[in-house]
Amino acid sequence: MTEETFKLNNDVEIPVMGLGTFQMTPDQAQNATLDALKDGYRLIDTANGYMNEKAVGRAIKESGLTREKIFISSKLWPTVYEDENAIDDTLKRLDIDYIDLLFLHQPAGNWKEGYRQIEKAYKEGKVRAIGISNFEGATLDELLDFAEIKPQVIQTEAHPYYTAQKIMATLKPYGTRLMAWYPLGHGDSSLLKQPIFTQLAEKYNKSNVQIILRWHIQAGHIVIPGSTNPSHIKSNLDIFDFKLTDEEMTEIAKLDTETRYYNPTPSLVAGYANMRMDFNSQK
Fold first, then answer.
1. What's residue 127's pLDDT?
2. How many Å apart are CA 127 and CA 124, to the nearest integer?
């Protein structure tokens, strides 16, 4: 178990490591969340669009932990950005009174109205921190100009092949923290088996995956690897008994070739605004 946290730009503390529930069925998400909380995770990430918020909420209740001990992040889907009940509905599905971190999931649809809704909920105490997900380039610049409350976190693809340097350079003046999805490069074996990770795994008696997750945290990233395998969930958290040297961090930095696994074309992103789901029908 770890109590290590990062302090966000509004002084809210967020655990450095969490469980991601992307592409999990409700049953998988409930079981994985329970396993993670038992192992010592204190950050759970979900989303409207994952269709497993209710399951995550059930696991939180079943864990026996007090609400204050668990940091919960979720995301509004573009089709509900203009729905004034969207945040209350998210709270109901999770069966909680407040969300620790709420993201705009995609820069699609009327995202300005969605951001205003999150800002309002933030002021009302329903949300403790504001996040944006998948924003970059001109759209990110536009959001930063528009935002009354600058985002505390950006969730974006990040791994040793792609460290989102341009995005983070834009956000640096605001102290926005990066939360990495695809933290292991979408499971790309060429990344996982890079010689530097194999060498360091032997040195520290860890796995290549554990070395990469440790790199993320030392790079200042919040990291949310997703797994439904109880042993993987447990081992992913076992990264707090060693530290990579500055020289090792520099060597890993040489792997950054700006190689991405998700290509957010304009047409793909625009399509999210029409991708309607009945979030309240989830099991």
1. 98
2. 8
